[in-house]
Write a structure and sequence with these properties.
The chain is an alpha+beta fold and 118 residues long. It has a domain of 68 residues. It contains three helices and four strands, in the order H-E-E-E-E-H-H. About 6% of the residues have low confidence. It binds zinc ion.
Length: 118
């Protein structure tokens, strides 16, 4: 039974049996070109050699796949990892009735320095 736990069994989201067909259909739809689009630079012109699950790793529908080059796939994975790290940041919460709102900047700029500082 040790043979049943190969590397395939450790995948978080196993690929479906028709994955090769889905992958080919995705490439054909996108013209075998990377679909990465960058503001101001346009679409990537590199030949696509990977299929990206842009809606999540468990969604294998054709509409949820896009062709992407190796470079941009790695870049997106890095961006997603970075986004996951920063999403835990707490929003800046401030109690509306707290006393901190009453503190203002010292009015020296308007009134000039006090006599003992001139
Ligand atoms: Zn690309």
């Amino acid at each position: 039974m040790a043979w049943s736990n190969g590397p395939q069994g450790s995948r978080l989201a196993p690929l479906p049996a028709n994955w090769p067909q889905l992958r080919t259909a995705c490439f054909e739809r996108d013209g075998y070109r990377c679909t990465w689009y960058e503001e101001g630079r346009g679409r990537c012109t590199t030949r696509a050699d990977e299929c990206d699950h842009w809606r999540g790793r468990g969604d294998h529908r054709l509409v949820s796949l896009r062709s992407i080059c190796h470079f941009h796939h790695a870049r997106q994975t890095a961006q997603q990892a970075a986004a996951g790290r920063t999403s835990m940041k707490r929003p800046d919460e401030r109690h509306p009735s707290g006393p901190s709102g009453a503190i203002e900047v010292a009015p020296y700029k308007v009134m000039g320095l006090p006599p003992h500082m001139q």
